[in-house]
Amino acid sequence: MAEAGFAKFSSREVAKRIGYSVGTLYNIFGSYDRLIIAINTRTFRLWAAWLEEGLAGNPQDRPQDRIAALVEGYFSFAQENTHIWMAIYDHRLPPGIPMPQDYAGQRAGLTEIVVREVAAVLPCETRDIAPRLARSLVATVHGHCTFALNGSFALLGETDPLEMATARVKESLRAAGAKL
Amino acid sequence: MAEAGFAKFSSREVAKRIGYSVGTLYNIFGSYDRLIIAINTRTFRLWAAWLEEGLAGNPQDRPQDRIAALVEGYFSFAQENTHIWMAIYDHRLPPGIPMPQDYAGQRAGLTEIVVREVAAVLPCETRDIAPRLARSLVATVHGHCTFALNGSFALLGETDPLEMATARVKESLRAAGAKL
DNA sequence: AAAATAATTAGACAGCGTTCAATTCGCGTC
DNA sequence: GACGCGAATTGAACGCTGTCTAATTATTTT
Protein backbone atom coordinates (compact mmCIF):
# COMPACT_ATOMS: atom_id res chain seq x y z
CA MET A 1 0.00 0.00 0.00
CA ALA A 2 2.80 2.37 0.90
CA GLU A 3 4.51 1.70 -2.43
CA ALA A 4 1.60 1.46 -4.85
CA GLY A 5 -1.08 3.59 -3.27
CA PHE A 6 -4.74 2.77 -2.93
CA ALA A 7 -5.63 2.74 -6.64
CA LYS A 8 -2.90 0.29 -7.66
CA PHE A 9 -2.98 -1.82 -4.54
CA SER A 10 -4.12 -5.40 -5.12
CA SER A 11 -4.58 -8.48 -3.01
CA ARG A 12 -2.96 -10.62 -5.67
CA GLU A 13 0.23 -8.57 -5.50
CA VAL A 14 0.20 -8.83 -1.72
CA ALA A 15 -0.14 -12.61 -1.99
CA LYS A 16 2.73 -12.75 -4.45
CA ARG A 17 5.04 -10.73 -2.21
CA ILE A 18 4.35 -12.65 1.00
CA GLY A 19 4.71 -15.94 -0.83
CA TYR A 20 1.16 -17.14 -0.45
CA SER A 21 -1.69 -17.54 -2.88
CA VAL A 22 -4.73 -15.26 -3.09
CA GLY A 23 -6.91 -17.95 -1.58
CA THR A 24 -5.04 -17.89 1.71
CA LEU A 25 -5.41 -14.13 1.94
CA TYR A 26 -9.14 -14.48 1.45
CA ASN A 27 -9.43 -17.24 4.05
CA ILE A 28 -7.85 -14.90 6.57
CA PHE A 29 -9.42 -11.53 5.75
CA GLY A 30 -12.64 -12.65 4.08
CA SER A 31 -12.77 -9.84 1.56
CA TYR A 32 -10.80 -7.09 -0.07
CA ASP A 33 -12.59 -4.51 2.04
CA ARG A 34 -11.63 -6.18 5.28
CA LEU A 35 -8.01 -6.45 4.18
CA ILE A 36 -7.92 -2.74 3.57
CA ILE A 37 -9.71 -2.01 6.84
CA ALA A 38 -6.95 -3.92 8.62
CA ILE A 39 -4.25 -1.94 6.83
CA ASN A 40 -5.95 1.39 7.50
CA THR A 41 -6.54 0.65 11.15
CA ARG A 42 -2.84 -0.05 11.52
CA THR A 43 -2.19 3.33 9.93
CA PHE A 44 -4.44 4.98 12.50
CA ARG A 45 -2.41 3.39 15.29
CA LEU A 46 0.87 4.53 13.77
CA TRP A 47 -0.54 8.00 13.33
CA ALA A 48 -1.70 8.31 16.93
CA ALA A 49 1.71 7.12 18.15
CA TRP A 50 3.35 9.69 15.86
CA LEU A 51 1.30 12.47 17.42
CA GLU A 52 2.14 11.40 20.97
CA GLU A 53 5.79 11.26 20.00
CA GLY A 54 5.62 14.76 18.63
CA LEU A 55 4.07 15.95 21.86
CA ALA A 56 6.62 14.23 24.07
CA GLY A 57 9.78 15.05 22.12
CA ASN A 58 11.70 18.31 21.81
CA PRO A 59 10.47 19.97 24.98
CA GLN A 60 13.23 22.56 24.64
CA ASP A 61 12.51 23.55 21.04
CA ARG A 62 8.92 24.63 21.54
CA PRO A 63 8.50 24.72 25.28
CA GLN A 64 4.75 24.35 25.47
CA ASP A 65 3.12 24.80 22.11
CA ARG A 66 1.37 21.48 22.13
CA ILE A 67 -1.34 22.64 19.74
CA ALA A 68 1.20 23.55 17.08
CA ALA A 69 2.88 20.21 17.70
CA LEU A 70 -0.41 18.42 17.01
CA VAL A 71 -1.03 20.22 13.74
CA GLU A 72 2.57 19.68 12.74
CA GLY A 73 2.27 16.00 13.59
CA TYR A 74 -0.91 15.64 11.56
CA PHE A 75 0.76 17.16 8.53
CA SER A 76 4.13 15.48 8.80
CA PHE A 77 2.63 12.02 9.16
CA ALA A 78 0.52 12.56 6.07
CA GLN A 79 3.48 13.98 4.20
CA GLU A 80 5.90 11.20 5.09
CA ASN A 81 3.34 8.43 4.66
CA THR A 82 1.31 9.80 1.80
CA HIS A 83 -0.01 6.59 0.35
CA ILE A 84 -1.11 4.85 3.50
CA TRP A 85 -2.54 8.11 4.84
CA MET A 86 -4.57 8.73 1.70
CA ALA A 87 -5.74 5.10 1.70
CA ILE A 88 -7.65 5.86 4.89
CA TYR A 89 -9.80 8.36 3.07
CA ASP A 90 -9.82 6.64 -0.32
CA HIS A 91 -11.50 3.59 1.10
CA ARG A 92 -15.23 3.57 1.64
CA LEU A 93 -17.01 0.50 2.83
CA PRO A 94 -20.18 -0.54 1.01
CA PRO A 95 -23.27 1.23 2.39
CA GLY A 96 -24.88 -0.70 5.19
CA ILE A 97 -21.74 -2.58 6.21
CA PRO A 98 -20.51 -0.91 9.39
CA MET A 99 -16.93 -0.73 10.63
CA PRO A 100 -16.10 -3.75 12.83
CA GLN A 101 -16.26 -2.73 16.48
CA ASP A 102 -12.66 -3.50 17.45
CA TYR A 103 -11.34 -1.52 14.51
CA ALA A 104 -13.54 1.48 15.30
CA GLY A 105 -12.12 1.57 18.81
CA GLN A 106 -8.51 1.70 17.65
CA ARG A 107 -9.36 4.48 15.23
CA ALA A 108 -10.97 6.65 17.92
CA GLY A 109 -7.62 6.95 19.67
CA LEU A 110 -6.49 9.74 17.39
CA THR A 111 -9.46 11.94 18.17
CA GLU A 112 -9.07 11.30 21.88
CA ILE A 113 -5.58 12.80 21.82
CA VAL A 114 -6.87 15.98 20.22
CA VAL A 115 -9.81 16.24 22.62
CA ARG A 116 -7.45 15.91 25.56
CA GLU A 117 -5.09 18.61 24.30
CA VAL A 118 -7.88 20.98 23.35
CA ALA A 119 -9.48 20.58 26.77
CA ALA A 120 -6.14 21.33 28.42
CA VAL A 121 -5.81 24.64 26.65
CA LEU A 122 -9.36 25.86 27.22
CA PRO A 123 -10.41 27.78 30.33
CA CYS A 124 -12.60 25.97 32.84
CA GLU A 125 -15.77 27.77 31.70
CA THR A 126 -15.63 26.50 28.15
CA ARG A 127 -13.93 23.19 28.74
CA ASP A 128 -17.14 21.22 28.17
CA ILE A 129 -17.19 22.17 24.52
CA ALA A 130 -13.78 20.56 24.02
CA PRO A 131 -15.02 17.36 22.34
CA ARG A 132 -17.11 19.13 19.72
CA LEU A 133 -14.50 21.82 19.11
CA ALA A 134 -11.72 19.26 18.87
CA ARG A 135 -13.53 17.33 16.15
CA SER A 136 -14.14 20.53 14.26
CA LEU A 137 -10.49 21.49 14.48
CA VAL A 138 -9.45 18.08 13.23
CA ALA A 139 -11.72 18.66 10.25
CA THR A 140 -10.09 22.04 9.69
CA VAL A 141 -6.61 20.59 9.72
CA HIS A 142 -7.72 17.65 7.61
CA GLY A 143 -9.01 19.96 4.91
CA HIS A 144 -5.74 21.85 4.76
CA CYS A 145 -3.74 18.64 4.73
CA THR A 146 -5.84 17.16 1.95
CA PHE A 147 -5.41 20.20 -0.26
CA ALA A 148 -1.70 20.33 0.51
CA LEU A 149 -1.18 16.75 -0.59
CA ASN A 150 -3.47 16.57 -3.60
CA GLY A 151 -1.99 19.67 -5.14
CA SER A 152 -4.98 21.99 -4.79
CA PHE A 153 -2.94 24.47 -2.81
CA ALA A 154 0.11 24.31 -5.02
CA LEU A 155 -2.09 24.89 -8.04
CA LEU A 156 -3.28 28.12 -6.47
CA GLY A 157 0.14 29.34 -5.41
CA GLU A 158 -0.17 28.56 -1.73
CA THR A 159 3.23 27.73 -0.26
CA ASP A 160 2.66 27.10 3.44
CA PRO A 161 -0.48 25.09 4.17
CA LEU A 162 0.82 24.04 7.58
CA GLU A 163 1.12 27.63 8.72
CA MET A 164 -2.36 28.31 7.40
CA ALA A 165 -3.87 25.38 9.25
CA THR A 166 -2.14 26.32 12.47
CA ALA A 167 -3.38 29.88 12.19
CA ARG A 168 -7.00 28.76 11.68
CA VAL A 169 -6.83 26.39 14.64
CA LYS A 170 -5.41 29.02 16.97
CA GLU A 171 -7.99 31.58 15.91
CA SER A 172 -10.76 29.18 16.81
CA LEU A 173 -9.17 28.28 20.13
CA ARG A 174 -8.76 31.93 21.03
CA ALA A 175 -12.38 32.55 20.08
CA ALA A 176 -13.28 29.83 22.57
CA GLY A 177 -11.33 31.58 25.31
CA ALA A 178 -7.95 29.89 25.12
CA LYS A 179 -4.92 32.02 25.90
CA LEU A 180 -2.16 31.17 23.45
CA MET B 1 -20.98 8.22 -11.90
CA ALA B 2 -23.89 9.71 -9.96
CA GLU B 3 -25.51 6.31 -9.64
CA ALA B 4 -22.57 4.00 -9.08
CA GLY B 5 -19.97 6.21 -7.46
CA PHE B 6 -16.28 6.40 -8.26
CA ALA B 7 -15.34 2.89 -7.16
CA LYS B 8 -17.96 1.10 -9.25
CA PHE B 9 -17.87 3.44 -12.21
CA SER B 10 -16.62 1.85 -15.43
CA SER B 11 -16.13 2.97 -19.00
CA ARG B 12 -17.63 -0.26 -20.28
CA GLU B 13 -20.87 0.42 -18.46
CA VAL B 14 -20.91 3.96 -19.85
CA ALA B 15 -20.46 2.59 -23.36
CA LYS B 16 -23.28 0.12 -22.84
CA ARG B 17 -25.69 2.79 -21.64
CA ILE B 18 -25.01 5.28 -24.41
CA GLY B 19 -25.24 2.55 -27.03
CA TYR B 20 -21.64 2.64 -28.19
CA SER B 21 -18.72 0.29 -27.74
CA VAL B 22 -15.78 0.90 -25.47
CA GLY B 23 -13.51 1.59 -28.38
CA THR B 24 -15.45 4.69 -29.39
CA LEU B 25 -15.23 6.04 -25.86
CA TYR B 26 -11.47 5.58 -25.97
CA ASN B 27 -11.14 7.24 -29.35
CA ILE B 28 -12.85 10.30 -27.90
CA PHE B 29 -11.38 10.55 -24.41
CA GLY B 30 -8.09 8.72 -24.91
CA SER B 31 -7.99 7.13 -21.49
CA TYR B 32 -10.02 6.33 -18.44
CA ASP B 33 -8.34 9.17 -16.54
CA ARG B 34 -9.32 11.74 -19.12
CA LEU B 35 -12.92 10.51 -19.14
CA ILE B 36 -13.09 11.03 -15.40
CA ILE B 37 -11.39 14.42 -15.66
CA ALA B 38 -14.13 15.47 -18.07
CA ILE B 39 -16.84 14.28 -15.69
CA ASN B 40 -15.24 15.97 -12.70
CA THR B 41 -14.70 19.23 -14.50
CA ARG B 42 -18.39 19.28 -15.34
CA THR B 43 -19.10 18.76 -11.65
CA PHE B 44 -16.93 21.77 -10.81
CA ARG B 45 -18.97 23.90 -13.19
CA LEU B 46 -22.27 22.71 -11.73
CA TRP B 47 -20.92 23.36 -8.26
CA ALA B 48 -19.86 26.91 -9.03
CA ALA B 49 -23.26 27.64 -10.59
CA TRP B 50 -24.91 26.19 -7.50
CA LEU B 51 -22.96 28.56 -5.28
CA GLU B 52 -23.84 31.60 -7.38
CA GLU B 53 -27.47 30.55 -7.30
CA GLY B 54 -27.36 30.28 -3.53
CA LEU B 55 -25.90 33.78 -3.36
CA ALA B 56 -28.47 35.28 -5.72
CA GLY B 57 -31.60 33.57 -4.41
CA ASN B 58 -33.65 34.25 -1.28
CA PRO B 59 -32.46 37.78 -0.58
CA GLN B 60 -35.29 38.17 1.94
CA ASP B 61 -34.56 35.05 3.97
CA ARG B 62 -31.00 35.93 4.91
CA PRO B 63 -30.63 39.56 3.96
CA GLN B 64 -26.90 39.73 3.51
CA ASP B 65 -25.17 36.72 5.02
CA ARG B 66 -23.36 35.77 1.88
CA ILE B 67 -20.62 33.92 3.76
CA ALA B 68 -23.15 31.59 5.38
CA ALA B 69 -24.75 31.12 1.97
CA LEU B 70 -21.40 30.02 0.55
CA VAL B 71 -20.76 27.46 3.27
CA GLU B 72 -24.33 26.25 2.99
CA GLY B 73 -23.95 25.95 -0.77
CA TYR B 74 -20.71 23.99 -0.43
CA PHE B 75 -22.38 21.52 1.91
CA SER B 76 -25.71 21.17 0.14
CA PHE B 77 -24.12 20.52 -3.22
CA ALA B 78 -21.96 17.79 -1.74
CA GLN B 79 -24.94 16.35 0.12
CA GLU B 80 -27.29 16.30 -2.84
CA ASN B 81 -24.65 15.12 -5.31
CA THR B 82 -22.60 12.87 -3.09
CA HIS B 83 -21.17 10.55 -5.71
CA ILE B 84 -20.09 13.06 -8.29
CA TRP B 85 -18.78 15.35 -5.55
CA MET B 86 -16.70 12.60 -4.00
CA ALA B 87 -15.44 11.54 -7.42
CA ILE B 88 -13.61 14.86 -7.61
CA TYR B 89 -11.49 13.92 -4.64
CA ASP B 90 -11.37 10.18 -5.26
CA HIS B 91 -9.63 10.67 -8.56
CA ARG B 92 -5.90 11.28 -8.68
CA LEU B 93 -4.04 11.53 -11.92
CA PRO B 94 -0.85 9.54 -12.31
CA PRO B 95 2.18 11.44 -10.98
CA GLY B 96 3.79 13.58 -13.65
CA ILE B 97 0.69 13.91 -15.79
CA PRO B 98 -0.65 17.44 -15.20
CA MET B 99 -4.26 18.59 -15.46
CA PRO B 100 -5.05 19.76 -19.03
CA GLN B 101 -5.00 23.56 -19.18
CA ASP B 102 -8.60 24.16 -20.24
CA TYR B 103 -9.92 21.90 -17.49
CA ALA B 104 -7.80 23.62 -14.83
CA GLY B 105 -9.29 26.96 -15.83
CA GLN B 106 -12.88 25.80 -15.40
CA ARG B 107 -12.05 24.35 -12.02
CA ALA B 108 -10.56 27.60 -10.74
CA GLY B 109 -13.96 29.26 -11.04
CA LEU B 110 -15.10 27.91 -7.72
CA THR B 111 -12.20 29.40 -5.81
CA GLU B 112 -12.64 32.74 -7.53
CA ILE B 113 -16.16 33.04 -6.16
CA VAL B 114 -14.94 32.51 -2.63
CA VAL B 115 -12.04 34.94 -3.05
CA ARG B 116 -14.45 37.59 -4.30
CA GLU B 117 -16.86 37.15 -1.40
CA VAL B 118 -14.11 37.03 1.20
CA ALA B 119 -12.56 40.21 -0.19
CA ALA B 120 -15.96 41.92 -0.04
CA VAL B 121 -16.32 41.22 3.65
CA LEU B 122 -12.81 42.22 4.69
CA PRO B 123 -11.88 45.81 5.60
CA CYS B 124 -9.68 47.69 3.16
CA GLU B 125 -6.54 47.24 5.28
CA THR B 126 -6.59 43.47 5.14
CA ARG B 127 -8.22 42.97 1.76
CA ASP B 128 -4.96 41.94 0.12
CA ILE B 129 -4.85 38.74 2.14
CA ALA B 130 -8.22 37.68 0.70
CA PRO B 131 -6.85 35.15 -1.81
CA ARG B 132 -4.77 33.25 0.72
CA LEU B 133 -7.42 33.42 3.40
CA ALA B 134 -10.15 32.34 1.00
CA ARG B 135 -8.23 29.20 0.01
CA SER B 136 -7.66 28.41 3.65
CA LEU B 137 -11.35 28.82 4.44
CA VAL B 138 -12.28 26.56 1.54
CA ALA B 139 -9.97 23.96 3.05
CA THR B 140 -11.66 24.40 6.41
CA VAL B 141 -15.12 23.89 4.96
CA HIS B 142 -13.89 21.03 2.82
CA GLY B 143 -12.61 19.19 5.86
CA HIS B 144 -15.92 19.53 7.65
CA CYS B 145 -17.85 18.49 4.55
CA THR B 146 -15.65 15.43 4.04
CA PHE B 147 -16.11 14.25 7.60
CA ALA B 148 -19.84 14.92 7.42
CA LEU B 149 -20.25 12.78 4.33
CA ASN B 150 -17.91 9.92 5.11
CA GLY B 151 -19.44 9.36 8.52
CA SER B 152 -16.52 10.47 10.67
CA PHE B 153 -18.66 13.08 12.39
CA ALA B 154 -21.67 10.83 12.86
CA LEU B 155 -19.41 8.19 14.38
CA LEU B 156 -18.33 10.69 17.01
CA GLY B 157 -21.79 11.99 17.78
CA GLU B 158 -21.52 15.26 15.92
CA THR B 159 -24.92 16.32 14.61
CA ASP B 160 -24.42 19.67 12.89
CA PRO B 161 -21.25 19.84 10.80
CA LEU B 162 -22.58 22.72 8.75
CA GLU B 163 -23.00 24.89 11.82
CA MET B 164 -19.51 23.93 12.92
CA ALA B 165 -17.96 24.84 9.61
CA THR B 166 -19.77 28.16 9.48
CA ALA B 167 -18.63 29.00 13.00
CA ARG B 168 -14.98 28.26 12.14
CA VAL B 169 -15.13 30.36 9.00
CA LYS B 170 -16.67 33.33 10.75
CA GLU B 171 -14.13 33.18 13.57
CA SER B 172 -11.32 33.38 11.06
CA LEU B 173 -12.94 36.21 9.16
CA ARG B 174 -13.46 38.18 12.36
CA ALA B 175 -9.85 37.56 13.30
CA ALA B 176 -8.91 39.13 9.97
CA GLY B 177 -10.97 42.21 10.76
CA ALA B 178 -14.30 41.44 9.16
CA LYS B 179 -17.39 42.74 10.92
CA LEU B 180 -20.09 40.05 10.78
C1' DA C 1 -20.25 5.17 -59.00
C1' DA C 2 -15.77 5.30 -57.09
C1' DA C 3 -12.44 6.80 -54.03
C1' DA C 4 -11.06 8.78 -49.70
C1' DT C 5 -11.83 9.87 -45.12
C1' DA C 6 -13.97 9.32 -40.70
C1' DA C 7 -16.34 6.70 -37.25
C1' DT C 8 -17.17 2.50 -35.05
C1' DT C 9 -16.61 -2.14 -33.73
C1' DA C 10 -15.30 -6.73 -31.91
C1' DG C 11 -11.99 -9.26 -30.03
C1' DA C 12 -7.61 -10.08 -27.64
C1' DC C 13 -4.76 -9.13 -23.61
C1' DA C 14 -3.41 -8.76 -18.89
C1' DG C 15 -5.00 -7.85 -14.60
C1' DC C 16 -8.56 -7.57 -10.91
C1' DG C 17 -11.73 -9.59 -6.64
C1' DT C 18 -13.96 -13.75 -5.49
C1' DT C 19 -15.03 -18.59 -4.94
C1' DC C 20 -14.26 -23.45 -4.02
C1' DA C 21 -13.04 -28.38 -4.98
C1' DA C 22 -8.78 -30.48 -4.61
C1' DT C 23 -4.51 -30.89 -2.58
C1' DT C 24 -0.87 -30.62 0.88
C1' DC C 25 0.70 -30.14 5.57
C1' DG C 26 1.17 -30.96 10.66
C1' DC C 27 0.41 -33.74 14.37
C1' DG C 28 -1.53 -37.13 17.63
C1' DT C 29 -2.52 -42.21 17.67
C1' DC C 30 -1.97 -46.87 16.85
C1' DG D 1 6.96 -46.02 10.83
C1' DA D 2 2.18 -45.91 9.16
C1' DC D 3 -2.29 -44.28 9.49
C1' DG D 4 -5.91 -40.84 9.95
C1' DC D 5 -7.88 -36.50 10.50
C1' DG D 6 -8.44 -31.59 10.71
C1' DA D 7 -6.44 -27.39 9.35
C1' DA D 8 -4.01 -24.77 6.03
C1' DT D 9 -3.09 -23.83 1.34
C1' DT D 10 -3.58 -23.90 -3.49
C1' DG D 11 -4.65 -22.74 -8.29
C1' DA D 12 -7.92 -22.82 -11.75
C1' DA D 13 -12.31 -20.76 -13.11
C1' DC D 14 -15.66 -16.85 -13.36
C1' DG D 15 -16.99 -12.40 -14.64
C1' DC D 16 -15.43 -8.09 -14.44
C1' DT D 17 -12.03 -4.20 -15.56
C1' DG D 18 -8.90 -0.65 -18.74
C1' DT D 19 -6.40 -0.69 -22.97
C1' DC D 20 -5.13 -1.47 -27.60
C1' DT D 21 -5.60 -2.46 -32.67
C1' DA D 22 -6.90 -4.64 -37.06
C1' DA D 23 -10.96 -4.93 -39.42
C1' DT D 24 -15.27 -3.22 -40.63
C1' DT D 25 -18.92 0.10 -41.56
C1' DA D 26 -20.60 5.07 -42.57
C1' DT D 27 -20.07 9.25 -44.43
C1' DT D 28 -18.28 12.62 -47.39
C1' DT D 29 -15.76 14.06 -51.49
C1' DT D 30 -14.63 13.58 -56.10
Structure description:
2 copies of one chain form a homodimer. The first copy, chain A, has 180 residues and is an all-alpha fold. Chain A has one domain (32-175): Orthogonal Bundle (Tetracycline Repressor, domain 2), CATH 1.10.357. Chain A has 9 helices and no strands. Chain A has helices at 11-18, 22-29, 32-56, 66-80, 82-90, 101-121, 130-150, 152-155, 161-175. In chain A, helix 3 packs parallel to helix 6 and helix 7 runs antiparallel to helix 9. The longest helix of chain A is centred in the first third of the chain and has 25 residues, at 32-56. The first copy, chain A, is globular, with a radius of gyration of 19 Å. The model of chain A has no long low-confidence stretch (mean pLDDT 93). The interface between A and B is large, with 38 and 37 residues. The structure holds a DNA duplex (30 and 30 nucleotides).
